[in-house]
Design goal:
Elements (H helix, E strand, L loop, with lengths): L11 H19 L8 E6 L8 H10 L9 E9 L2 E9 L9 H4 L5 E3 L6 E3 L9 H5 L6 E3 L4 E3 L5 H5 L5 H5 L5 E5 H6 L31 E4 L14 E2 L11 E2 L9 H9 L1
Length: 270
């Protein structure tokens, strides 16, 4: 049986703020906010031990009941003995450059901060319709059944404003989770213990993750060899770090790439 969705009724004060919030939403919808600095996460899939300290710190910080999890540690295992593998992928809200959740909110409760690019939510304006939850390709918005509203990671904005790092980052005993300017994280130039400069190559996507072309998420990974995303051979396209949506990968000729259909037809005709 389908779960019944209950829509909250906003109070008088919240109703008065809806018009402004909707205008803010519409402005961000048609021309996404370009923050002064876009902060993002980096996670080392190889060195993460899966202790879930980041998950617990996040739930404690935000006072979440059983069920919703802003940060999720996913265990990936596979292979056949003796060639077996295991690694972890750690993800929360990716504070996307073009968040899919933002334009779906009917009350304008979701907005993107202009100073650091954090995608935040005003829970006092949330009516519990869960449209944002359905729109997000990464499962970031979390429904709180106790309060009947949607909540999500805001990168511990209060900690950022106090000059500290988010609780999840501070709780990581292996220091495989960190934040920083996403352009520098992708380029491998940011000073962080989550990667080794000159050795580790950050990537934008790992297996079992939605395409970054959808929303341009602000996250980078040090991927496990078995977690790397293989580019379709027919494209002959090899991903590189620090690329943009307009140029998601660098075109190079691959020895194992088959010829393009037109070229193959021409060769067959000759």
């Amino acid at each position: 049986m389908a779960e019944k969705i209950v829509i909250n009724k906003l109070g008088v004060d919240a109703q008065a703020r809806v018009k402004y919030a909707q205008e803010r939403r519409d402005a961000a919808t048609y021309e996404p906010v370009k923050p002064a600095v876009q902060l993002g996460f980096i996670h080392n899939n190889v060195d993460c031990i899966g202790c879930r300290a980041c998950e617990m710190a996040c739930k404690d910080k935000n006072g979440l009941p059983p069920g919703p999890r802003f940060r999720r540690v996913m265990y990936i295992e596979g292979g056949t003995f003796p060639e077996v593998f295991a690694y972890k992928v750690n993800m929360s809200c990716n504070h996307c450059a073009e968040p899919a959740c933002l334009p779906t909110c009917p009350t304008g409760a979701i907005w993107k901060r202009a100073d650091n690019g954090v995608v935040d939510i005003d829970s006092t304006l949330c009516i519990g319709c869960r449209r944002c939850q359905a729109a997000c390709p990464f499962g970031a918005p979390q429904f709180d059944p106790v309060e009947n509203i949607v909540k999500k990671c805001n990168m511990c904005i209060d900690e950022l404003e106090a000059g500290r790092k988010p609780y999840c980052v501070a709780a990581c005993m292996m220091r495989v989770l960190d934040i920083g300017p996403i352009d520098q994280l992708r380029a491998g130039t940011w000073d962080t213990k989550a990667m080794v400069k000159g050795k580790d190559v950050p990537v934008r996507q790992v297996k079992h993750m939605a395409s970054p072309l959808l929303t341009n998420p602000s996250i980078a990974f040090i991927a496990h060899p078995q977690g790397r995303v293989d580019v379709p051979p027919e494209t002959g396209c090899i991903p590189t770090a620090g690329t943009s949506l307009e140029t998601p990968c660098e075109l190079k000729v691959r020895d194992d790439a088959p010829p393009a259909p037109a070229a193959a037809a021409s060769k067959a005709a000759s």
